[in-house]
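[Meeting: bench + compute handoff]

Bench side (C.D.) handed over the final construct sequence. Compute side (W.E.) agreed to return the predicted structure before the next meeting so the bench team could plan truncations. Sequence as handed over:
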Amino acid sequence: MTTPIYIGYYFTIKPLQPATEILIAELGYAGFESFVETEKGMEAFIQKEEWNKSILDDIHILSSEEFEITYTTEEIEQVNWNKEWEKNFTPIMVDNMCSVRAPFHEKPDVAYDIVIEPKMSFGTGHHETTHMMIQHLLKHDVEGKKVLDMGCGTGILAILAEMKGAKPIDAIDIDNWCYLNTIENVERNNCKHITAYEGESSLLVDKQYDVVIANINRNILLKDISVYAATLTDGGSLFLSGFYKEDLEMITKECATYNLMFQECYERNNWIAACYKLK
């Protein structure tokens, strides 16, 4: 199989938020596959065969006067992303109950030990949103419940749900890297009840879940809350993250439109992970 050539874009962004979130969303719609947030901005990658010289013409935030965004670009061969990741990845612990680590880390004595190799996917557990969503799952009973992990990234949340007794579980991501990586991590953790899909909310037609987890970004959440609500069983729970504290009122108002009532939330470095229940 031919190794794909990638085009890498390296963005410097001032101020970082919410510009980074918006830029990732717009680039995702334009065909960029994977993103890495950095201290000064973010990096974005797209396969050369999917790239064209006008790829950024419809990225509206680049012309916004609210933010200063500059970038450089280069053509890169596919690299060993696992090796790059291993250089900086350290295992994490959430509430002394759940660890997220790589295969080369020592196995800790915890109730839930998740082993992943994320490649270019999101969701190592280090980001505030993933960390808080893990906290929600640790706190809530999902035994025997049907679960959806929307925007699954590395599959961490789906894997934890199965470890806590949920089944069956659907894990969906629009990013091909995330879809493939979820399949790998599901197998790595010996999960038997998770099915991964590549796609978006259109896959949810006629689906029903007791619990929906969606860790994406504000704009996509606002667009798809109605879809999530339609899939939930009576009394079902919806966990949302990927947005900031200042967006909570907006998200909660949209949820209420579909009889999803706010229950509680975690806050971490201005990021929010909120729980809603269908009344």
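W.E. noted at the follow-up: The helical segments are 19-30, 81-86, 128-139, 156-163, 176-188, 218-231, 248-257. C.D. will use this when planning the next construct.
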